[in-house]
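Before the break, one more example. Copy the sequence into your notebook; we will annotate it together after we see the structure.
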Amino acid sequence: MEHPLEKYIRKGALPHTFCAGCGDGMIAQSFLRAVDELGLDFKKMVFLSGIGCSGWIPSPLFDADTLHAPHGRAIAYATGIKLFKPELKVAVFVGDGDGLGIGGNHLIHAARRNIGMVVVCVNNMTYGMTGGQAGPTTPRGMVTATTPYGNLEGGFDSCELVKAAGADYVARWTTFHIRQLINSFKKALGKKGFSFIEVVSQCPTHLMRPMGFKRPSEMLIWLRDNSISIERASKLSKEELRGKIIIGEYADSDKPELSEAYAELSRRMRGR
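Here is what the structure looks like once it is written out:
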């Protein structure tokens, strides 16, 4: 019996390339379930990804038009595609190092422009593909390949950053909160403007042992126990929120979208 999501998987793409216990497969399935439940035409979607573990989610897994962009440049490529083909639904998969570190400037300005795309940021709190170095979201004190005595830097809050830049929809979940994640994907895919969903995910290769875990399932339990809703977080102090993952919807609006504005301008100019 064929799996209901098998029609979205490129022939020959399985078995996948994710490490055993990685959250990328959970995120891929959640996204495809959202597409399936919405009844979207997969052939009218285009997927982009950067360099990193999360890049293997759409490319080569998804049986659709995909583009594996240079490190940190996936959102820039997606912007060009959306402006040239505004009828396409564009989704970008980036990691925290790719999308927030190396490509952070593109992220900010895509949100500011409210260009119509869904950006999925897989945050495993490290540069997972290149050896487990500390990145822009690595928690203070965490042991990594480049911070063997604990990370001295503070990671920034990507959801607050993208919300302040002007995105239509912003949310954060973890790989433990699968149903909430699917619902957020569905909402984001229904938006005209810029949507950003951060998914805090487990890395069984580079973070499991430094964090003191023996199995990926223990990391999932840690994600569950350290998550707190945005509503509850609003009632707590910064000290009480230290080390917590604040989950929920940060922004939900419907502002003018850039590619539609360009299309309207083009129609006006041709009519002159």
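The first strand starts at residue 45 and ends at 49. The longest helix spans residues 24-38. Try to locate both features in your own notes.
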